[in-house]
Amino acid sequence: MSEETSSVKYYSLAEIAVNDGTNGNGTWIIYKDNVYDVTAYLDDHPGGGDLITEWAGKDCTKAFDDFGHSGDAKKEMKTMKIGEVREEERKKEAEEERERQREGCY
Ligand code: HEM
């Protein structure tokens, strides 16, 4: 479905970045091109709010997966989805792979 006709809300990376929990803004995070509003969840996070606010307005995919969250955690995350990253601003898979390799190669 094209961006125009889909009911999914698309956000630019700049719009998402503004929601970094400062200046009275909410806290949004990106996980695998989906956008989540975790403002109300911070106090409930078993790992504490700070671990999430570190990624406020940014892509937490690697940090989230590196911890190895449970299926329940992923289900919980889904309930907070508010939209997706604009298609033209998504990372290409090849680029993500290169980043992973760089990070693993000290
Ligand atoms: C919407 C986002 C998130 C949700 C819904 C979520 C949910 C959860 C849940 C349910 C647990 C308990 C263990 C489990 O079920 O896996 C947990 C633990 C944990 N989470 Fe998250 N999490 C989120 C984001 C993050 C992020 C971005 C980080 C960054 C590193 C993180 C780090 C951790 C850590 C370290 C624990 C272990 C806490 C402990 O056992 O002391 N989480 N999370």
From TrEMBL:
Native species: Molorchus minor
Domain called Cytochrome b5 heme-binding: residue spans: 8-86
Pfam short name (any one): Cyt-b5
Region Disordered: start-end pairs: 83-106
Principal localisation: endoplasmic reticulum
The family this protein is said to belong to: Belongs to the cytochrome b5 family.
Subcellular location: Endoplasmic reticulum membrane; Microsome membrane
Name of this protein: Cytochrome b5
InterPro entries per the UniProt record, alphabetical: Cyt_B5-like_heme/steroid-bd, Cyt_B5-like_heme/steroid_sf, Cyt_B5_heme-BS, Cytochrome_b5
Keywords recorded for this protein, A-Z: Electron transport, Endoplasmic reticulum, Heme, Iron, Membrane, Metal-binding, Microsome, Transmembrane, Transport
Membrane topology: Single-pass membrane protein
Domain of life: Eukaryota
